Amino acid sequence: MLKAGFIGAGNRSQGAHYPNVQRLEEDVEMLAVCELDEDRLDQVATKYEFPHTYTDHRKMLDEADPDIVYCVMNEKWILQPALDCLNAGKHMFIEKPPGKNSDETQQLLDAAVANDVYCMVGFQRRHTAITREAMRLVNDKGPVSTVVTTFNKQILGGDGKELTTTLWNDIVHIVDLTRFMAGGEPVEVTAYQDKFSGDSYNHYSALVRFDNHVTGIIMGNRASGGRVLRSELHGPGIGCYMKIPAELEILEDNQSRVLGGWEIEGVDKEDTASYEGALDMHRHFIDCIHNKKVPTSDLRDAIHSIRLVDQIEATDWRS
Q: Can you give the residue range of the structural domain that contains 14?
């Protein structure tokens, strides 16, 4: 059984990570937690019955000596705690984005490689049941031809002085998903960035050509009317249309069928975590450590998605 330490007890940790790691109790012992906010620390310590609590992550690493660490915090703060964990020889899970820029991502990757440990990034859309099923169906039918991803929200305003862009800290999800489903590396990128109703970029679109002849289309719009997360995956004679995480519509040889994510996973519809990707993501991380296999979204792979983000942000169509 792997001993797990946790750094951070914010909303994302409590909503997606603590409860799903707890479901892996046959493989993971929730040994220790570290959080500066003592109210939050007490809350999670009581709820998850952590035997050890800390307000200093270095002390947790020394005294509790966990095998793995879930280090989940805002990109503004992640670099030093994550480096401390990696340099202590701990396998680690972190949320996206991995640092506040690609230089920090590279620092984390270098530390993971130097210490021969894994550092998995929480790109959970890779693990959504409908994504996995669509990829299986299309790859069984023939090579992928086209990937389309859309991630819209309504976030207007902004003074242009934010620490990171919405492409970096949120739309990165579909940049990674596009590259993952395409199964190749980008060789040509045409991209646009715009500002609507504020001084911050909130509209991104990109056309990406991959080295395996797949075309990717990425649309991330924060100047829309509400949240939409969808994707498409196409191959010869088949098209898969996904409303992430709930619904997969399959058009194959002019026949149509629809599957729910819970049907694919064989769980109750209310057990959202089992088909939206969070539980499978954590199970994958643990299985990889047991089997000494690099996780699918380890920094060794995720760095390529980060470089694609950089390419999209660097493209200036006005020049």
A: 2-117
